[in-house]
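Order emerges. For instance:

***
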Amino acid sequence: MADVTAVPDEPGQPPALSAPVFVAAASQSIVREQIITPFDVSGGVDETGKVVAINYDKLVDTFGSKKIDQALLERFEKVTGHKPHRLMRRGMVFSHRDLDLILDKYEKGNHLFLYTGRGPSSDSMHVGHSIPFEFTKYLQEVFNVPLVIMLTDDEKFFHTPKLSLEDCHKFALQNAMDIIAIGFDVKKTFIFIDTDFVDGGHGGAFNKNVRVIGKRTTINQIKGTFGFGDSNNIAEFGFPAMQSATAFATSFPFIFGTNTKQVAKIPCLIPCAIDQDPYFRQCRDNAGKLGFVKPALIHAVFLPSLRGAETKMSASDSDSSIYLSDTDKQITKKIGNAFSGGQDSRELHRQLGGRTAVDIPFQYLRFFLEDDDELERIRVRYESGEMESGELKKRCAGVLHEYVGAFRKRRAAITVEVRDLFLRPRGLEWGDRKAEEELREREIERLERRLAELRAV
């Protein structure tokens, strides 16, 4: 099998995806392309002036990633022994870079680690934020590997004029407690806040990698990838090197050890929303030239806003979001006001049926309802007109009551002391892959012998 480092670099960078580019285009034509960057997400505008939903197939073509197809899902299940997560089964985790190579390495018994993160822009996270962390928790349990979570308080400060560095750091401390409440294993998870870790006593190796990556990255590369111009501050230009450094195991010697030649071979898998991909295109472009393994990525779609699928849920807009701190009453009210794919009248709805593709309560069920069979029954009933919008919204609200309610209970148990333990640089535990494989093989042999005994009776 090909090694991750042997994979050719991606083709040339896609055109700059910055808001100013599209604003200029809009002045010449009513048609506007969708905007997907780490800083701005919205659907395009068609010839009639209507805002349209985000086209994820087009993003795969634009970004140059690969679709997660049925064959890859089957290989994932075969190699890991685990049923793919509901987000994978339903196409919400839809795209990847080198997930197939990660599976090759895992199958051979090699180690890997996970890396994800969040930019703390507010003190309250919403359910759209929890989804990628829930998926990351699933991957950690499946692969039984260490996880590094980066909270980029500095990035939010660089990019958001109205926020002070103190604000962003305070948000990061709060967000860390929310993230821990997803259910991560403290023995296998290290969370760090940029301004604390980089300036602390354990950030030396990390800082070294930042400098090495920064020297290799040109201003033109950053401009081409992020659409930055002369008005962007110099800190914004430098930050991608920091986000890249976290993808290399040598940045964390207290976790992976100090044998840099061996540690540099440990691959990283990054579960993230598709808007973060530009950061890691830069990282992958430079990794092999610096002796690092290219990080692999697995991309998720955005949880749509309550207002419609044209944009994602936003923490700064309470009417578009369901917060993890919302009460059942608040959730019920918000779902009741969510954009519906039902028809204008009961008679017309029974005749034409509901439009699940644009119905936000149904889309939320695709994200949060575990039972595939129930989801399909709801889809059939709603699209046939048998189920009305009110009934669908009631079921959606009930699922979210359960999801958010369970989170609130876990969150109440997270103390400052628990948070500080996750934030402390330390060694992490993870399974012995070869021992696990041997145990699994022995269990299969035991079951086969038992089956043979039953057949002989």
